[in-house]
Design a protein that fits this description.
Layout lengths: L1 E10 L2 E11 L4 E5 L6 H8 L7 E6 L2 E2 L5 H7 L1 E3 L12 H10 L9 H15 L14 H14 L4 E5 L7 H17 L3 E5 L3 H7 L2 E6 L2 E6 L1 H6 L1 H8 L7
Parallel strand pairs: 3-8, 3-9, 6-7, 7-8
Antiparallel strand pairs: 1-2, 1-4, 4-5, 9-10
Length: 244
């Protein structure tokens, strides 16, 4: 489904992503891990068109999407959430999702009224229908993260990219978020690329794990293989994650 070939992204003299190649097959949940500054969010931003790659290629379902604009990439079936939620703060929850509905690929003649009806379905799915008329800035952090997911799902993605959805949540909220993401995967038939610092989540949910360090891919494999990889343990996980 997604093929990244030798992608490099520089910011001046800093090489944030260095000659990274990876693939994601349809139906997989792939975890992307690494220490802060490893290049994880930069790589996501290259995939989604926020940053332009300096070299390399990004292909999605056989189509070259390298350096396309974000709205073009959304329309081919890639959506994402953000580590720091980025709703339109002065718009209601339902209007936030309606904008996402109108951004997808199958709505050439949809009215805003119809988009609002469609948006309500996604708000209900994430448990926010009762907050449909609340301004996004007045939602709790968990609710803003749920709104992020609703907006992403409203674009009807084939590939959903999740960027640290658990950041700032308490254990109860994190469990709710995990269950919601897993239900979204099953009900919407999603392929997922999941960036997360909570290793227990990645180790329990991912089919395969990719590890970045200083902008380079240093390991790839099953969660069990990654937990035993000495390079990964030294660079990021620490001994407590090594399986005995």
């Amino acid at each position: 489904m997604l093929n990244i070939k030798n992608v490099t992204k520089r910011f001046g003299n800093l090489v944030a992503v260095n000659n990274v190649s990876l693939h994601i097959d349809e139906g997989e949940v792939v975890g992307l891990i690494g220490p802060n500054g490893a290049g994880k969010t930069t790589l996501i931003n290259v995939i989604c068109g926020v940053y332009k790659a300096d070299s390399g290629k990004v292909e999605f379902n056989g189509v070259d999407i390298t350096n396309k604009e974000p709205y073009e990439i959304c329309k081919v079936g890639i959506s994402r959430t953000y580590q720091i939620p980025q709703p339109f703060p002065d718009m209601t929850a339902v209007n936030n999702v309606a904008v996402a509905v109108l951004g997808r690929r199958d709505v050439a003649n949809m009215s805003f009224g119809d988009a609002l009806l469609d948006a309500s379905h996604f708000l209900q799915f994430v448990g926010l229908l009762s907050k449909r008329d609340v301004l996004a800035r007045d939602l709790t952090l968990y609710e803003q993260r749920a709104l992020e997911l609703a907006r992403a799902l409203a674009t009807l993605p084939k590939l959903l990219i999740i960027d640290e959805a658990m950041a700032g949540l308490n254990p109860t909220e994190s469990l709710r978020a995990i269950r919601l993401i897993n239900r979204a995967r099953d009900e919407f038939n999603l392929t997922i690329l999941w960036v997360e610092h909570v290793m227990k989540i990645i180790m329990e949910t991912a089919d395969r794990v990719l590890v970045l360090h200083y902008g380079e891919k240093i390991a790839e494999g099953s969660p069990e293989e990654i937990s035993r990889d000495t390079r990964v343990i030294e660079a990021y996980l620490g001994e407590k994650y090594a399986l005995r």
